[in-house]
Recover the amino acids of this structure.
């Protein structure tokens, strides 16, 4: 059999398993490349070359798994997100392109001046870092790898912090200029990408699953960033004095009653803790209600709370944000025109 016939028969196997034709062709090609160690160009150039039984045996187990509707990303062990490749295992949700909109909402955000110290503790103006968008590149010194001048201690000081207040809470643990938290980090795709793009920001990430955090830690190492990972429920595992300029989350938002409508790839393979509203008979909004109740207290004034939402949930979540006292509540549409990101700022 020639390589092109081999590819055609693999495509047919996937189509027969119920995978739509266009995807079957692309995925068969990717699996053949993966099994035989070929680039796309080699696959084309060698289309008339014969395929032997040994090569067939390399592809077969992959084809069986995919025909069984196991997601391609689990078979390959990785998935691209925002231009980076992430390790994925069945312990984590597979990163989705929609989630890139959440990332963009964060990159477009200007951190509030309130993230700086209270007036009495301000260092002389010359020592202040210039105001910058959170997504702006680091100053040249640190980009060249030279050590940045240390922040004056007063900039991170907590001595003026009112008892029990969150107004002047310690921002991000005091290690970097800004602080960001990703709740329910899963593969770590959001936290690690943001840590990579925003080297001046201290990134924290929580997840309830230790197995997911193991994958997220691997991804942080893979991309050479340091993220403070903590295991636990939403904000519970964080030091109580910590506040953030940005809190993001892509929480499990599918109502359990919708499970029968999901593709088998999702329902039968992705972790249910990452997909479904955790409350029995939940409407999909349970974790947004909890985030509205718990997250604003952990934001600095002017800080951003941004979440991904499921189809049809944006208005309800925007309303939760308003009721929680957040301002500038905004809905961002995804490429399909579906309200996908809801954000708001703490006044
Ligand atoms: N934060 C991860 C992602 O966006 C995981 C989200 C989740 O498990 N619900 O892919």
């Amino acid at each position: 059999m020639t390589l092109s016939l081999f590819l055609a028969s693999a495509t047919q196997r996937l189509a027969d398993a119920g995978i739509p034709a266009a995807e079957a062709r692309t995925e068969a090609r990717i699996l053949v490349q993966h099994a035989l160690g070929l680039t796309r160009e080699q696959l084309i150039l060698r289309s008339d070359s014969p395929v032997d039984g040994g090569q067939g045996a390399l592809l077969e187990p992959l084809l069986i798994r995919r025909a069984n509707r196991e997601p391609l990303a689990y078979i390959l062990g990785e998935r691209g997100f925002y231009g980076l490749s992430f390790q994925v295992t069945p312990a984590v949700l597979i990163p989705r392109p929609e989630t890139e909109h959440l990332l963009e909402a964060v990159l477009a955000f200007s951190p509030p001046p309130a993230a700086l110290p209270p007036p009495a503790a301000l260092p002389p103006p010359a020592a202040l870092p210039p105001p910058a968008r959170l997504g702006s590149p680091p100053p040249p010194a640190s980009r060249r790898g030279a050590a940045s001048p240390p922040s004056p201690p007063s900039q991170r000081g907590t001595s003026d912090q009112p008892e029990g207040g969150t107004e002047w809470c310690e921002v991000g643990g005091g290690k970097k200029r800004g602080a960001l938290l990703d709740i329910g980090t899963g593969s770590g795709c959001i936290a690690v990408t943001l840590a990579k793009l925003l080297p001046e920001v201290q990134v924290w990430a929580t997840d309830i699953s230790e197995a997911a955090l193991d994958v997220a830690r691997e991804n942080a190492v893979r991309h050479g960033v340091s993220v403070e990972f903590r295991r636990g429920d939403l904000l519970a595992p964080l030091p109580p004095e910590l506040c953030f300029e940005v809190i993001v989350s892509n929480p499990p938002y599918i109502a359990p009653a919708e499970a029968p409508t999901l593709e088998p790839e999702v329902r039968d393979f992705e972790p249910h803790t990452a997909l479904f509203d955790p409350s029995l008979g939940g409407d999909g909004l349970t974790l947004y209600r909890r985030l509205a109740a718990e997250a604003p207290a952990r934001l600095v004034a002017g800080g951003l709370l941004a979440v991904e939402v499921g189809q049809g949930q944006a208005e309800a979540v925007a309303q939760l944000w308003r009721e929680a006292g957040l301002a500038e509540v905004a809905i961002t549409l995804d490429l399909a025109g579906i309200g996908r990101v809801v954000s708001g700022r703490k006044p």
